[in-house]
Design a protein that fits this description.
Layout (H helix, E strand, L loop, with lengths): L1 E6 L6 H15 L3 E6 L4 H8 L4 E3 L12 H25 L3 E5 L4 H10 L2 E6 L8 H12 L3 E4 L2 H7 L8 E3 L16 H4 L7 E6 L8 H12 L5 E6 L8 H13 L5 E5 L4 H7 L2 E4 L9 H8 L4 E4 L4 H4 L6 E4 L4 H12 L2 H18 L2 H13 L4
Parallel strand pairs: 1-2, 1-4, 2-3, 4-5, 5-6, 6-7, 8-9, 8-11, 9-10, 11-12, 12-13
Amino acid sequence: MNILLLNGSSDLYGASRVFLQTAHKLKKDGHQLQVLLSEDGPLVKEFNKIDIPTRIVRLGVLRKKYLSILGLANRLQLLFSSFFIIKRICREQKIDLMYTNAVPVVIGGIASKLLGIKNVWHIHEILPVQSFQHRFFGWLINQCSNKVIVVSKAVYDNWCNKVDKSKLVLLHNGIDDRDFINPPKDFRASLNLPTEKILVGMVGRVNLYKGQSYFLEIAAAINQQPHNCHFVMVGDAYPGYEYLYDQLTTQKNRLGIDSIITNLGYRTDIPLIMNGLDIFVLPSGKPDPFPTVILEAMAAQKPVVATEQGGACESVVHGLTGYLVPLQDAAAVAAHILALAQNESLRKEMGIAGQQRFQRLYSISQFEASIAAEVESLQA
């Protein structure tokens, strides 16, 4: 098939990595691909490495920050212009199928509907059920897709009352674990920390729901007790949320924990960092659809401490591979982390159990086979 794939960002975080994996598998299966990205960035370089043609087109991605008169006018203009670019590409390359990655990339669905081309919409988001956005996107996805892939049961439950259940397919993400097995062991040394320090880390793009602020509260709660922990934060700010970095710095100073926190910002060497950690924490403030970073921690044999909501409840087995912890109770989370920090054998047991669960359920081979089968099922 000739397939047009659309993604709204060019980062290398979870949804974009899934997009890259999907495209790579479809190329291996012999399909002819054209990728459209709404912005330049590191994802473009990854597509260049595997010889998949990529083009930057402002796709008019509908994000919350554009919910104003001027913002919506800007989006409508971009949607209009990008439609005609997509129309020309579809005509010139005889496109058989579109693959739209993420809810806000609405032009994929709109263009496929207007041009009479089948569309697979891959949903990675959970939205408030009573919100206008949820009702609008749900209606549009239902009207403009032939198949809707959701990344977790939590995402399925969020959309099943808006999208025809016959179109919905639950397919958990998978990752390639090869980079997470025995990478160089110099991460701790790069931080100039003694070997006996217990590294507690989180990885995630800074926004309003990933939980960086809660992570600092947890660190402060641990710091009120005897401990041997150092805390590591990885991730840059999502566009439009750069101001949160300043807020986190202010919070660190207010809590008096600056000396036990290292903020590394944006990094591409996640396997190295993940293997250097002793405990991984994902303190999301709102339901995280299906965080691939948890799979990375499991692949690296790290116990996971995650807030009990969203897709984390499907990947983490409480008491076996880590702990599912409450929101807004930093003391309770701190108790779980301290229990792990003080028990090396428990960390190893949970890490091994997590890796075994990962290999059984979330391997890249399973994901690739499943995603290709779903996409190829729409072949005429």
